[in-house]
């Protein structure tokens, strides 16, 4: 299996098209066409993680966080980032990161937090916009079902819990081919009228190349008439953070103890207690202060995230319990998610879970 084939598998879980603009995801170091001898899954790629990969004959590191976040002008080994890149290149080790693509995935970082906490009835906290596209095409009515099925097979027509969704309109199309044309129906130089079906179908933006390939391969016409538009609909299964509920409301002090125990953190920094039970909880792995107002507007009783600054806690305004559990702690189960996913997909070589603790913060 090639590195690029492993990346294709990982894109089934978290397509890179949904990474945030500020991020640096994808293959950061290495050759996409290299044959994989083993995979090491980690939260961060540090020098000792590269050493771990070398020791275990793994030439691909799948890392949640990107080791290269902004441009490198020099690689001289003066910084920890440069040393990691140097060592990886020297030992022909590829490094891949899916960071915010996995943050935005329905089955990604925040789903893992919800699962660990036992939150039900989950919804995306901040749905992404402009990620749904619509295709309209015109097909001879006798070929409409075949084209439609090809589009379904390519992934079009999925709306929430439903698939194979489309809307068809019957009508009559006209065309006249010029001298260079080779019409499948009708004769060149003569106007032709054909009973046609207009197919309208939505699809996720990362599937556009596959959708168009299926359209062109299944459509009988020499020239395929089609339109693609980007919809303003929010994507309810894609975006930052999640919000869910406990089966039963629990006391807020009990909630904080449960949170500390379950998320394996030595410290929970929180805003003032509200003297009310906790049932509806918003979560956002990593730095999440930007979502405080969103959590409040969603009527969350508590919002769990990390990296809150001093003044962020004032934003609670006695309406929500803010709980900062630490950046690493909020994302620590992510490597388990990636490891489990790859283990199910790949059976012909080792997929190892890194045993290196990459948390840079210690508590006294």
TrEMBL record:
A divalent metal cation binds at residues 65, 103, 327, 331. The keyword Metal-binding applies. Transmembrane segments: none annotated. One of its GO terms (molecular function) is metal ion binding. InterPro entries: DUF34/NIF3, DUF34/NIF3_bac, DUF34/NIF3_sf, N-reg_PII/ATP_PRibTrfase_C. One of its GO terms (cellular component) is cytoplasm. Keywords: Metal-binding. The keyword Hydrolase does not apply. Pfam families: DUF34_NIF3. Belongs to the GTP cyclohydrolase I type 2/NIF3 family. Homohexamer. NCBIfam families: YbgI_SA1388. This is GTP cyclohydrolase 1 type 2 homolog. It comes from Aequorivita sublithincola (strain DSM 14238 / LMG 21431 / ACAM 643 / 9-3).
């Amino acid at each position: 299996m090639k590195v690029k084939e492993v990346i294709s598998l990982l894109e089934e879980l978290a397509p890179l098209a949904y990474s945030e603009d500020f991020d640096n995801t994808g293959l950061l170091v290495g050759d996409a066409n290299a044959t994989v001898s083993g995979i090491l899954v980690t939260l961060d790629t540090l020098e000792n993680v590269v050493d771990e990969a070398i020791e275990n004959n793994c030439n691909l590191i799948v890392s949640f966080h990107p080791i290269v976040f902004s441009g490198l002008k020099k690689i001289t080994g003066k910084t920890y980032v440069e040393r990691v890149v140097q060592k990886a290149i020297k030992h022909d080790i590829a490094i891949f990161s899916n960071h915010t693509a996995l943050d935005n995935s329905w089955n990604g970082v925040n789903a893992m937090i919800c699962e660990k906490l036992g939150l039900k009835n989950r919804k995306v906290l901040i749905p992404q916009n402009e990620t749904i596209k619509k295709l309209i095409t015109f097909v001879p009515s006798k070929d409409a079902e075949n084209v439609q099925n090809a589009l379904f097979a390519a992934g079009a027509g999925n709306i929430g819990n439903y698939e194979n969704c489309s809307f068809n309109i019957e009508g009559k199309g006209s065309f006249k081919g010029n001298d260079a044309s080779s019409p499948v129906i009708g004769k060149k130089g003569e106007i032709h009228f054909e009973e046609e079906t207009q197919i309208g179908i939505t699809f996720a933006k990362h599937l556009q190349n596959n959708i168009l390939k299926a359209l062109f391969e299944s459509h009988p016409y020499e020239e395929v008439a089609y339109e693609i538009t980007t919809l303003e609909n929010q994507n309810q299964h894609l975006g930052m953070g999640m919000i869910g509920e406990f089966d039963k409301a629990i006391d807020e002090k009990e909630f904080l103890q449960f949170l500390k125990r379950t998320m394996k953190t030595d410290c929970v920094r929180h805003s003032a207690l509200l003297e009310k039970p906790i049932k509806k909880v918003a979560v956002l792995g990593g730095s999440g202060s930007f979502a405080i107002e969103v959590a409040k507007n969603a009527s969350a009783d508590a919002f769990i995230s990390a990296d809150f600054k001093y003044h962020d806690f004032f934003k609670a305004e006695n309406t929500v319990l803010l709980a900062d559990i630490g950046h690493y702690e909020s994302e620590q189960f992510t490597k388990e998610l990636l490891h489990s996913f790859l283990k199910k997909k790949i059976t012909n070589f080792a997929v190892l879970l890194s045993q290196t603790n990459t948390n840079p913060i210690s508590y006294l």
